[in-house]
Amino acid sequence: MDSKEYIDGYIARARRAQAEFEKMSQEQVDKAVQTIGRVVYENAQYFAEIAVEETGMGNVEDKFAKNKQKAGIVWNNLRGKKSRGILETNEKTGITTVAKPMGVVAAITPCTNPIVTPMSNSMFALKCGNAIIITPHHKSVKCSTKVVEMMNAALAEKGYPENLIQILDEHSRENTRNLISSADVVVATGGAGMVNAAYSSGRPALGVGAGNVQCIIDEGYDYKEAVPKIVKGRSYDYGIICSAEQSVICPEKDFENILKEFEANNGYVVRDKDKLEKVRGALFEDGKANRHSVGQSCQKIAELAGIEIPEGTKVIVAVAEGTGATDQLGGEKMAPVISAYAYRDLDDGIRIAAENLEREGKGHSVSFHSDSEDHIAKVAENLCVSRFVINQCSSNSAGGSYFNGLNPTNTLGCGSWGHNSISENLNYHHLMNVSRVARFMPDNYVPTDEELWGE
């Protein structure tokens, strides 16, 4: 069977399932969405174990926590929200909005999040009455397939149509290309190559950009409050989360004390030029991430670098020799290594962050630890990213949290800065068509020419 025929079979099955599913009530749709989340929540440990076993990235403890947290927070955000039929009527404008499915969603999912990304994409798709077909990363085919199989089994027990969620059982670039050019909408979460392919598919596409979260500690802020959150974020799942802190940019007068605080929180500080070069060599190869370092522990990174670090080290703090304009350490590091910078004043800190973002990660996220609303506004106005997380662990908050108002997701849009179509967290409404009923409003006020054009 050739690739086109193979994919046509998936599309046909999805369209039959979707045509039946879109006739179901809001209550039935929401029960399906809850069922998907519950499968991951109740099997969080098992899914964490098989993901680490297959991909060799991250650690079971953090993946277990991530599986439970994401399942809960995504469902909590979706429950009770209308996504089928008439949404509302605005008496002032006379507009009635009506929700409609997009049809068949194609989702490209990454090996860094092989469980929760298929889960959340499926929850968003089904919330709007769509069917979904997933093409997983080749390094995570088995674990992503297992989660889809278990979600489908739970849906089947409740009498939902077969093939609402499918996953390709033959992985190839040709199959992925044919899938994304045949579906009604594409969601791409992963490397730049796949995201670019999605935007070139001829179908509406929602993709993400590279992460390189810049973390700024404001002058006068209690760095003893900030540092434990930063260590938690940078070490989480051994550094493979796109929303994890990548650089810490500190006030010059507190720089040495902040480095000592990192050491007090299981950080190992690297300043020596020779050691810094060894760390770079462990992280990067020919200008790209060294595949042997991706998602590995500090101990493994130290082994690759040929340096010794204390047992129990959670984060390697590399005092960078320059911003991303001249030093590779200013870019994204797919391991628990964070670059450290000292700034003269906040304008200088913003400059450092901007230069790092120009290298990589523009449009993604910035973490800022500050008590000053004026400084928060200044940072937000001067850095080109889609989300700013304030006084939080970025790794656990940029993708949505119980404690902030960002949409819970595993797909973080980066706007035009990251060559994406959205500058917010992917949510169910991005997979919904909306019809608008416009009524004649004879009593609406029409301004005079003088009101419109008069000086």
Taking the alpha carbons of the first and last residues, their distance comes to 71 Å
User: What is the overall silhouette?
Assistant: globular
Which spans of ≥5 residues are poorly predicted at pLDDT below 50? none
Mean pLDDT: 96
Strand order of the largest sheet: 10-13-14-9-8-15-16
- Secondary structure tally, helices: 15
Q: What is the number of beta strands?
A: 17
Give the helix level as a range of percent. 40-55%
Tell me which oligomeric state these chains represent: single chain
How much of the sequence lies in strands comes to 15-25%
Rg, please? 24 Å
What does the main sheet amount to? 7 strands, parallel
Class based on secondary structure composition and strand pairing: alpha/beta
Q: Overview of this structure, please?
A:
This protein has 455 residues and is of the alpha/beta class. The chain has a 7-stranded parallel beta sheet with strand order 10-13-14-9-8-15-16, with helices on both faces. Strands 5-4-3-6-7 form a 5-stranded parallel beta sheet, sandwiched between helices. Strand 1 and strand 2 form a beta hairpin. 52% of the residues are buried.
